[in-house]
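quick one before i forget lol
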Amino acid sequence: MSTYVPPEVQKGLDAARKKDLKRRNKLRVEADGRSFRVLRFQEDGFTLDVEDAPHLRGLVDLYDGGRHFLQCLIVASEEEAGEMRYEFKRATQATDKPPVDFEQPEFVPAGLITNG
């Protein structure tokens, strides 16, 4: 049995696979005021469709739907099967509160009762 697939069929299969990945994944990258859909997300990086995304480099923000969850420093790594892979040089969790420079106790009373 032969495993040869005509180039037109392979192109159609690749397009269908990318479309399915984009539809299922809610992750997106924002860089330079533009937004790109993430095809695959791994611990050390992510991939984007090579046709949609330029060679990104530097500081980007990752969103899960509308929630900002990572701020990353990235570098373009390699292109394979129509996907551009980007690796994290740094990935910092995004928070909605500013960092504090002092220890906060676990239990904080809601109010104080006074005599009087």
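fyi The chain has a mean pLDDT of 82.
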